[in-house]
């Protein structure tokens, strides 16, 4: 069986894939730029100066090899944001600000 190695990506069980050098940055976050803006690896590195080309290529390689996993992570994050927005809309603070014309 072939085992693929992504030298700049760290993936632990039940955790999202992340950059080794910047563990707070998930592969899905970088992939969202690719999906949303159609950015190339070079453009991702221009937009995110901390990102090396090797890291960006490893990220995209990981994505294409694990697309279902990353797409699911992005979908779940999107749904969580939408749920949070819906909860915000119904908050008393939002209602008061809306009534006062401040939102």
From TrEMBL:
<dbReference type="InterPro" id="IPR036388">
    <property type="entry name" value="WH-like_DNA-bd_sf"/>
</dbReference>
<dbReference type="InterPro" id="IPR007367">
    <property type="entry name" value="DUF433"/>
</dbReference>
<dbReference type="InterPro" id="IPR009057">
    <property type="entry name" value="Homeodomain-like_sf"/>
</dbReference>
<protein>
    <submittedName>
        <fullName>DUF433 domain-containing protein</fullName>
    </submittedName>
</protein>
<dbReference type="Pfam" id="PF04255">
    <property type="entry name" value="DUF433"/>
</dbReference>
């Amino acid at each position: 069986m072939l085992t693929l190695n992504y030298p700049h990506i760290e993936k632990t069980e039940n955790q999202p894939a992340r950059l080794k050098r910047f563990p707070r940055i998930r592969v899905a976050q970088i992939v969202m730029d690719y999906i949303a803006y159609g950015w190339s690896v070079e453009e991702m590195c221009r937009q995110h100066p901390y990102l090396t080309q090797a890291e960006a290529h490893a990220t995209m390689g990981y994505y294409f090899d694990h697309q279902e996993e990353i797409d699911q992570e992005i979908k779940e994050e999107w749904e969580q944001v939408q749920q949070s927005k819906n909860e915000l809309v119904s908050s008393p603070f939002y209602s008061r600000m809306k009534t006062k014309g401040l939102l």
